[in-house]
Write a structure and sequence with these properties.
The protein is α/β, with parallel strands linked by helices and 405 residues long. It has 17 helices and 14 strands. The chain is globular.
Length: 405
């Protein structure tokens, strides 16, 4: 019997085709080799699997449900729109799926501290939560711009006991937070582990985070049959680094009849620096220890990026996403700031669900796609997070519509 896609990707060196790998300084080779070995040992361990199952069921609140967005569907007038409700996961987003597992891994390695970057703050909150649960120290690096924009999540991290360190160089957003976290991790590698927040970074993180997030797709595949007695025709998720998208895509990669859309942020427009549409406008390059597609400036360095969604304004993308696009398995959707805010308010007022601005990109694209499809077709959106963190920013900059749509 032929092996499945997930059994054969990545290869032993962490490559998905030509993308991925581990381009790291010699001082980090042993720590990353130790993480790889520990993960390969742990992932099939009955104790680890049982610990993770227990935490997910009795602490995180999994499985998260699939909801039929009846009112939004009627508003769009086309294909039926369903939502995989990762916003109902403890801490309000999909990030805890890999953070709990990464902290279990850290304890297995005898580490006392976890270090990470965060953009919108969801990964930072999730890691601070996991660290509190398992009794480890937590250090979170966050861009100064995002600290101001995502204030509620900053407060949550501090309440949970994490040390939040501002990244004050460059654009002071997600890329700079990753830079700062790596710089801090190097001298602490003996006692700390860097818990990367997406399917990016050096091997084994793109593989490991995908595997931990695959619970989304595994649940969704079974749950969707309860609604439609079939697979979804289309699956949509926003992509920055791409962890929530790989989480839901992973279970459907071998199902060729299911269209997979990763939605990139077009921000304010096509000009470099006004968007973070990496797969659409980028080219091959190495950043943060892995080879993928990235947005580059005139000197070939990572370009400035922008999105209203702080968790998706990243100048590269997970190497598996680059590979799946190249092989024609996934498609790229686009959503600008205006469309994302419109979807934010429409989902809130039509369904009673306030989405994260990142997730609103996927909802906006689903609305556009639904209008082009017949009513017997289906769309499943990975609603990766809730919008509590964004409400102050949104209402300060985009007035609440006067009435329902």
């Amino acid at each position: 019997m032929p092996k499945s896609y997930l059994e054969t990707h990545p290869d032993a060196q962490g490559f998905f085709g030509k993308y991925g790998g581990a381009f790291i300084p010699p001082v980090l080779e042993k720590p990353f080799a130790d993480i790889t070995q520990a993960y390969l040992e742990l992932k099939n361990s009955p104790q680890f699997i049982n610990d993770l199952k227990y935490v997910r069921k009795h602490y995180q609140g999994r499985p998260t449900p699939i909801s039929y967005a009846r009112n939004l569907t009627e508003h769009c007038g086309g294909a039926k729109i369903y939502l995989k409700r990762e916003d109902l996961n403890h801490t309000g987003a999909h990030k805890l799926n890999h953070c709990m597992a990464e902290v279990i891994l850290a304890k297995h390695l005898g580490k006392k501290k976890v270090i990470a970057e965060t953009g919108a703050g969801q990964h930072g909150v999730a890691l601070a939560t996991a660290a509190a649960y398992f009794g480890l120290e937590c250090e979170i690096h966050m861009g100064e711009v995002d600290i101001a924009k995502e204030h509620p999540n900053v407060v949550r991290m501090k309440i949970l006991g994490a040390k939040v360190i501002p990244a004050t160089h460059g654009l002071k957003t997600l890329k700079e937070a990753v830079d700062a976290a790596f710089e801090s991790y190097v001298p602490q590698a003996d006692e700390a582990i860097y818990c990367i927040g997406s399917v990016v970074g050096p091997h084994p993180f793109p593989m490991m985070v995908r595997d931990f997030q695959s619970v989304i797709g595994i649940e969704a595949k079974e749950q969707f049959f309860e609604h439609e007695a079939n697979l979804p025709d289309n699956i949509i998720a926003c992509v920055g680094g791409g962890s929530n998208a790989m989480g839901i895509f992973s279970a459907f990669i071998d199902d060729a009849e299911v269209n997979l859309y990763g939605v990139e942020p077009m921000g304010r427009g096509e000009k470099l620096g006004d968007h973070a549409a990496t797969l659409t406008y980028g080219s091959e390059g190495v950043m943060h220890g892995f080879n993928s597609i990235m947005l580059k400036d005139a000197n070939g360095e990572p370009a400035p990026v922008y999105s209203i969604g702080s968790g998706i304004d990243y100048p590269s993308i997970g190497p598996e996403h680059a590979f799946l696009k190249d092989m024609g398995r996934t498609k790229v959707g686009l959503c600008n700031d205006t469309e994302a805010v419109d979807a934010f308010y429409k989902l809130s007022q039509l369904e009673g669900i306030i989405p994260a601005l990142e997730s609103a990109h996927a909802v906006a694209f689903a609305m556009k796609l639904a209008k082009t499809l017949p009513k017997d077709k289906t769309i499943l959106v990975n609603l990766s997070g809730r919008g509590d963190k964004d409400i102050d920013f949104v209402i300060e900059n985009y007035p609440i519509p006067n009435a329902k749509f």
